[in-house]
Write a structure and sequence with these properties.
It holds the Pfam family TetR_N. This protein has helices at about 5-25, 35-40, 45, 55-80, 85-100, 100-110, 125-135, 135-145, 155-165, 165-170, 180-200, 210-225. It has 12 helices and no strands.
Length: about 230
């Protein structure tokens, strides 16, 4: 990397740090290119030489957040050797990260920001999201192939498997059979649903502490797979 490239990269990091500070202080909707340019002593036109628009900057922030989340879960997962313990540690790590990083979670999993279009399959946030989405697959499959009984009613699982479509199915093609993908997704929907409701304040009417509910749902799901 030559001097010009190093200077450009340093400026990109400054812009991202300023945007991240806005995210933490006020949430995803507070991210403003004009405010970043003002804070860094740049003109708006100069900032656009580094990021062509809000979409590109948000993509970088979301991808960085996915990478941090994935890294934190990998550390917890790899501290365990038993697949069941790895799956439990990964799920608990996901919730712990979400609770500790609520604004980043909102950026990654909340409603799309006004003016920000959907990310295409070639963008970095898509790649980072895929890495996160398949993070639990190895431990899950180690339990799936050694299961002694179907974790759910086979007809129900088959019906879900037949309805599968979209990127996740292609990502996991060759990694797990459709019936396993169906149960994999059902676990994600259940556990993500609890975490999202917790982060967005939609469980305050029901519980004062979400931990027991999360643990009950998590252990019930994993124990069906590996008693």
């Amino acid at each position: 990397m030559n001097r010009r490239e190093r200077v450009r990269e340093a400026t990109v990091q400054e812009i991202k740090q300023a945007a991240y500070a806005q995210l933490i202080a006020g949430g995803p909707t507070s991210i403003s290119l004009r405010a970043i340019a003002r804070d860094l002593g740049m003109t708006a036109a100069a900032l656009y030489r580094y990021f062509p628009g809000l979409d590109a900057l948000v993509e970088e922030l979301a991808a960085d957040s996915y990478d941090r989340l994935t890294e934190s879960i990998i550390k917890l997962r790899d501290a365990e050797t038993d697949p069941k313990a790895q799956l439990l540690a990964s799920a608990r790590g996901f919730r712990a990260w979400a609770v500790a990083n609520r604004q980043e979670f909102t950026l990654m999993f909340g409603s799309p920001l006004p003016g920000v279009t959907d990310f295409d399959a070639a963008c970095r946030v898509h790649t980072s999201g895929v890495a996160f989405s398949t993070l639990f697959a190895e431990a899950f499959m180690a339990l799936w192939v050694t299961r002694t009984a179907d974790p759910t009613d086979p007809q129900t699982t088959a019906a879900v498997a037949q309805s599968l479509d979209g990127p996740l199915l292609s990502w996991l093609d060759g990694v797990m059979p459709p019936e396993a993908v169906a149960y994999y997704i059902s676990g994600w929907v259940k556990l993500y649903g609890i975490v999202a409701m917790e982060i967005f304040g939609h469980l305050s009417w029901a519980v004062t502490d979400v931990s027991p509910l999360f643990e009950a749902e998590l252990t019930e799901y994993v124990n069906r797979l590996a008693p």
